[in-house]
Amino acid sequence: MIAPPGYSACCLERHLQDVLAFRQRLDRIRTLVDEPSNLSVLQGLQLYALCLAFRPDLIIELGRGYGNSTCVFAAALQKLGAGRVVSFDLDTLWDERTLPKLMASELSKLTRSVEARIEDIKLADFGSLVGRAGQVLVFWDAHGWEAADGVLCRLLPTIASRPHIVACHDFSDARYVEIDRAYHGRFFWRDPKLKEISARYTIGWVNTQEPQFIPLLDFLWRNRCELRSADEDLAIWRRDHAAPQREVERAIGADVFAPGCHWGYFSLNDAQASELTFPAMMR
Q: Region 168-173: what's the mean pLDDT?
């Protein structure tokens, strides 16, 4: 099992001192990038710890935006002393806004391990990109049906046979995070183009407004693979490792944990299907 129950909370506890040392740098990253709503402090610390524990030699970031998570992953690889981040986006925000500020700051060395591509992941040659990489960490923060095509049809078949983790952003675990059940006058979710004015949807315990979770949950069911949430990991750790988890939350700050985690992960290394099945690309 690549990621045992409670894995992300275990990573945070195991690398607590490194995480605490990184906290000031994370605050600086979030200030410089200046888009704090796209990555919370807790998410930044958890993803940093996840990288330190999993030790990927390749990080594939799908959806870069302004580059909060890009900088976090680059900082983790800098701490590990090896690896690279290949980041995909269709926008130029990184090149036009964030990169110049990074290069003019004390964080300029973070850019050395980053290859920022402006490329459609539905068309990317992931086979060539992955190559001989041993450990692969994917951060899936690109939204839409086309993004799901790129991940489920093209990326996952190339990494399925090697150690990997796919971290997914922008969903909540309705079992552990308070979810408002009322529609508040909004219509039900039906199309990604209307997501900003429609109610969030819930399938099982996954609550989100992003469309890619519909095909993802179907894909994981077909392959008998579990989507796990960082909020569930925290609940497991609070139950089974209460004393060390209290120390983690005291050291980092209870206020950081209060809003919840709002991300999760899976690995096909843990799939229970006798043979993996992948969808065809829609042409």
A: 97
